[in-house]
Amino acid sequence: MKMRGSSLVKDLEQLINNPIYSDLRIISEDNVILYGCRSILAARSAEKLMN
């Protein structure tokens, strides 16, 4: 059984492009859906998102 919490990097990898844990979708011009976490995108953004 895989134990969560043993590695922050591995835990965050579980959030990448995961529709279960996402709170936003980005749809490309060719209709590819990318799932994201707003809080992670805001924290990593050059300009912080306010809303």
What does this structure look like?
The protein has 51 residues and is of the alpha+beta class. The protein has one domain. The chain is 25% helix and 16% strand. The protein is built from 2 helices and 2 strands. It has a two-stranded antiparallel sheet with strand order 1-2. The relative contact order is 0.16.
Question: How is this structure best summarized?
Answer:
By secondary structure, the protein is α+β, with helices and mostly antiparallel strands. It has helices at residues 8-13, 38-44; strands at 24-27, 33-36.
Series of secondary-structure elements, N-terminal to C-terminal: HEEH
Total individual domains: 1
Helix content: 25-40%
How large is the count of helical segments?
A: 2
Gyration radius (Cα, Å) is 13 Å
Largest sheet: 2 strands, antiparallel
Give the rounded overall mean pLDDT: 83
CA-based shape = globular
Q: Low-confidence spans: pLDDT under 50, at least 5 residues? A: none
Strand order of the largest sheet: 1-2
Write down how many β-strands occur, each being a DSSP E stretch of 2 or more residues: 2
Distance between the first and last residues' Cα: 39 Å
Beta-strand proportion? 15-25%
Broad structural category = alpha+beta
